[in-house]
Amino acid sequence: NAGVTQTPKFQVLKTGQSMTLQCAQDMNHNSMYWYRQDPGMGLRLIYYSASEGTTDKGEVPNGYNVSRLNKREFSLRLESAAPSQTSVYFCASRRTANTGELFFGEGSRLTVL
Amino acid sequence: GQQVMQIPQYQHVQEGEDFTTYCNSSTTLSNIQWYKQRPGGHPVFLIQLVKSGEVKKQKRLTFQFGEAKKNSSLHITATQTTDVGTYFCAAGGSGYALNFGKGTSLLVTP
């Protein structure tokens, strides 16, 4: 089993460009999450999807949109990238919205010039 | 903002010394989770604590949940170089959010 798979692993964008980070899990989990990690800031929740068909804002949702495409897939879109969005992005999944541990993907390193 | 505060932010120890990181909340937590992230890696789940006053051990790691369920700690006895990484606590936020502390980065010198 692959667990949680994120693509791409690395991306360089210019300010104003758009891109979508893809995430898929094969563990039949109901809940999925997107975090960003910046030095000294820990992991900050951007958006999450407690179950298929629902999405909710986390701590830092501005500048991002998400789509829960189906139970397996949860994508994160940057419509107009800004240098402040330079970060490492982690997707994670969990069995249900309030039980179980988070399983993380390997991360996507995004640089916005 | 983040619901849980973690201290210290950094800790540098000699191999064999003990290490403790603390996680504090202003509100009562239903449970708390701990994760470890190795340099360049992704966070990996260590443990979940649910009960007031709970203490759990994993080899040299001891996890505690406070009696009031507002604080937690992770203690490593006799650190090894393999313990290097960042340790995070995580707790439920509003709705079904799961929020992380800022983490404690542990450096172990041989």
Brief overview:
Chain A has 113 residues and is mainly beta.
Tell me what you see in this structure.
- The complex is a heterodimer of chains A (113) and B (110).
- With 113 residues, chain A is mainly β.
- Chain A has no helices and 11 strands.
- Chain A has strands at residues 4-7, 10-13, 19-25, 31-38, 42-49, 56-57, 64-68, 74-78, 87-94, 103-104, 108-112.
- In chain A, strands 2, 4, 5, 6, 9, 10 and 11 form a 7-stranded mixed beta sheet that branches. In chain A, strands 1-3-8-7 form a 4-stranded antiparallel beta sheet, with no helix packed on it.
- The radius of gyration of chain A is 13 Å and the shape is globular.
- The relative contact order of chain A is 0.33.
- Chain B has strands at residues 4-7, 10-14, 19-25, 32-37, 44-49, 55-58, 61-65, 71-76, 85-92, 98-100, 104-109.
- The N and C termini of chain B lie far apart (37 Å).
- In chain B, the strands form 2 sheets. In chain B, strands 2, 4, 5, 9, 10 and 11 form a 6-stranded mixed beta sheet that branches. Chain B has a 5-stranded antiparallel beta sheet with strand order 1-3-8-7-6, with no helix packed on it.
- Chain B is globular, with a radius of gyration of 13 Å.
- With 110 residues, chain B is an all-beta fold.
- The chains are: A mainly beta (113), B mainly beta (110).
- Chain A binds chain B through residues 31, 33, 35, 40-45, 48, 50, 56, 58-59, 90, 92, 94, 97-98, 101-107, and chain B through 1-2, 6, 9, 33, 35, 41-45, 48, 88, 90, 92-93, 95-103.
